[in-house]
């Protein structure tokens, strides 16, 4: 026990494999070549967006498992989540996979919260293979949180685009040559009174800044100890605000800071402030970051996934947007 | 950092809404939609037996038909992102609100999906439109009765 919300993994559980699937529009992503599978149809040839959402998650799980020559029946736990009401895509995915399952909701921070829980199960020796991850499907999420997909409303430059992507990782006991999970910090819900769902980055930035400082002071590290510190989906606006907030806390050196949401679609202005969604951080962490760690380009990274814990109803009732950020530290030895 | 300070910082960092540019784009988009509608009205007056007053009904129906096509082909949302209020205020925007909701909820069936969700966005336009028409008509009736204005 190190402190409140701080976790250290002595056995260094490893991320042994990852699986990332993405929708057709994600061919515009700067990271498209790193995704394992890109569909040509947003609905993957299925009847509904929600079915496609589940299918994407199933495929990502199967890809990750196949990379470690395993079958769903070999996996001990499935810890995944998404943004659809009651997480039905994850539930349907779990039905198909038949792996003991707990659905997790930390909004877009689920990529890291699931990793933390998978690492804990592995740490205590209860799991040989645990699948962790998150996903989002643009059409399924937009219709729930905003307007119908084809509705012609004008979005401001601070708005973000929900990605269609699923990213999962297979966590195993320590394995040489694979990124290992060193420590983590569970976030506190932070709410600085932001109410605009078209500026989610601004709402989430304080949560990211809070978790970063708690992680650094709690685990006794500084920003320069990391090759990269990557936030989840702050987007271009939120990322700027986050850098200002950490500068306020005395961290000026932000050259190794990256944000998956701000980078996901490159500089394409049609995506406004960048990407968001549970699949955004999961897809980048489990492709770009995982690969660069495996080849030894990154030795130590800090992933801080951010989530806006609002519902369409809480927004209509004029509530503020509570946000969370969970951090996990990966090392490559 | 407290909420007030953060709100100030957020205002500083977030890109400003380009008001003048948006107004111009809305003017252009709305203007073009109305110009097209004007041609449609002229078409009905020239080739059919409609007067300037009666041509409005078939014109509105035709414009909604165009809006339906554009929504179905995924173009109206692009026009909406460019034009803002310019494409939301004309009848085509109303059509888009109804049609996009209908497309969206087809997966839940025709009764519980399309039927009950079609007016989810446009419903309040109808409700408050009818209500404000009632209030305006009431005021005018009173004024006519008082002899201030005539019908």
Task: Explain this structure.
The complex is a heterodimer of chains A (333) and B (151). Chain A has 333 residues and is of the alpha/beta class. Chain A has two domains: 11-172, Peroxisomal Thiolase, Chain A, domain 1; 180-331, Peroxisomal Thiolase, Chain A, domain 1 (3-Layer(aba) Sandwich), CATH 3.40.47. Chain A has nine helices and 14 strands. In chain A, the strands form three sheets. Chain A has a six-stranded mixed β-sheet, with helices on both faces. Chain A has a six-stranded mixed β-sheet with strand order 3-2-8-6-4-5, sandwiched between helices. In chain A, helix 1 (49-67) packs across helix 2 (88-97) and helix 5 packs across helix 6. Chain A is globular. Chain B has 151 residues and is an all-alpha fold. In chain B, helix 6 packs antiparallel against helix 7. Chain B starts with a helix and ends in a 6-residue tail after the last helix. Chains A and B meet through helix 6 of A and helix 1, helix 4, helix 5 and helix 6 of B.
Q: Any key phrases for this structure?
A:
heterodimer; A: 333 residues; alpha/beta; Peroxisomal Thiolase, Chain A, domain 1; six-stranded mixed beta sheet; 9 helices; 34% helix; B: 151 residues; mainly alpha; 2 domains; 8 helices; 75% helix; 0% strand; Stage V sporulation protein AD (chain A); Thiolase-like (chain A); SpoVAD (chain A)
Question: How are the SSEs placed, and which strands pair?
Answer:
The complex is a heterodimer of chains A (333) and B (151).
Chain A: E1 6-8, E2 14-22, E3 37-38, H1 49-67, E4 77-81, H2 88-97, E5 101-103, H3 110-123, E6 130-136, H4 138-145, E7 161-162, E8 165-172, E9 180-185, H5 200-219, E10 228-231, H6 235-248, E11 257-259, H7 260-264, E12 275-276, H8 278-294, E13 300-308, H9 312-316, E14 323-331
Parallel strand pairs in A: 2-3, 4-5, 4-6, 7-12, 10-11, 10-13
Antiparallel strand pairs in A: 1-9, 2-8, 6-8, 9-14, 13-14
Helix pairs in contact in A: 1-2, 5-6
Chain B: H1 3-13, H2 19-47, H3 56-72, H4 76-83, H5 85-88, H6 91-104, H7 110-117, H8 123-145
Helix pairs in contact in B: 2-3, 3-6, 6-7
């Amino acid at each position: 026990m190190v402190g409140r919300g701080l976790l250290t993994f002595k056995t260094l559980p490893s991320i042994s494999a990852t699986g990332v699937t993405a929708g057709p529009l994600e061919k515009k992503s700067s990271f498209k070549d790193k995704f394992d599978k890109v569909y040509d149809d947003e609905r993957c040839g299925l009847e509904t967006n929600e079915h496609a959402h589940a299918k994407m998650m199933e495929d990502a799980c199967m890809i990750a498992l196949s990379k470690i020559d395993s079958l769903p029946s070999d996996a001990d736990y499935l810890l995944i989540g998404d943004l659809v009401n009651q997480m039905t895509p994850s539930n349907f995915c779990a039905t198909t996979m038949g792996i003991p399952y707990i659905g997790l909701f930390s909004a877009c921070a689920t990529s890291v919260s699931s990793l933390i829980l998978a690492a804990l199960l592995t740490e205590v020796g209860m799991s040989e293979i645990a699948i962790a991850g998150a996903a989002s499907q643009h059409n399924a999420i937009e219709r729930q949180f905003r307007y119908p997909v084809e509705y012609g409303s004008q979005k401001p430059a601070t708005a973000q685009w929900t990605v269609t992507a699923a990213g999962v990782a297979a966590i195993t006991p320590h394995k040489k040559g694979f990124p290992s999970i060193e420590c983590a910090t569970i976030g506190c819900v932070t709410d600085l009174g932001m109410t605009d769902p078209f500026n989610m980055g601004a709402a989430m930035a304080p949560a990211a800044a809070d978790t970063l400082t708690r992680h650094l002071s709690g685990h006794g590290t500084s920003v320069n100890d990391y090759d990269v510190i990557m936030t989840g989906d702050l987007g271009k606006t939120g990322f700027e605000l986050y850098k200002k907030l950490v500068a306020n806390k005395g961290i000026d050196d932000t050259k190794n800071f990256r944000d998956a949401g701000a980078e996901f679609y490159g500089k394409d202005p049609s995506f406004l402030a960048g990407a968001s969604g549970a699949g955004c951080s999961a897809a980048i962490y489990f492709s770009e970051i995982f690969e660069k760690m495996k080849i030894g380009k990154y030795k130590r990274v800090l992933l801080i996934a951010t989530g806006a814990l609002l519902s369409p109803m809480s927004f209509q009732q004029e509530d503020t947007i509570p946000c969370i950020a969970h951090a996990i530290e990966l090392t490559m030895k | 950092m407290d909420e007030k300070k953060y709100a100030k910082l957020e205002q500083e960092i977030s890109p400003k809404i380009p008001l003048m540019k948006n107004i111009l784009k809305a003017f252009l988009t709305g203007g073009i939609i109305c110009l097209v509608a004007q041609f449609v009205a002229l078409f009905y007056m020239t080739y059919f037996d409609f007067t300037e007053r009666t041509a409005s009904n078939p014109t509105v129906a035709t414009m909604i038909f165009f809006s339906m096509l554009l929504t179905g082909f995924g173009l109206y949302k692009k026009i909406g992102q460019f034009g803002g209020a310019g494409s939301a205020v004309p009848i085509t925007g109303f059509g888009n609100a109804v049609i996009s909701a209908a497309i969206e909820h087809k997966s839940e069936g025709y009764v519980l999906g399309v039927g009950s969700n079609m007016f989810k966005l446009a419903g309040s336009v109808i409700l408050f439109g009818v209500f404000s028409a009632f209030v305006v008509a009431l005021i005018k009736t009173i004024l006519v009765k008082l002899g201030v204005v005539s019908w």
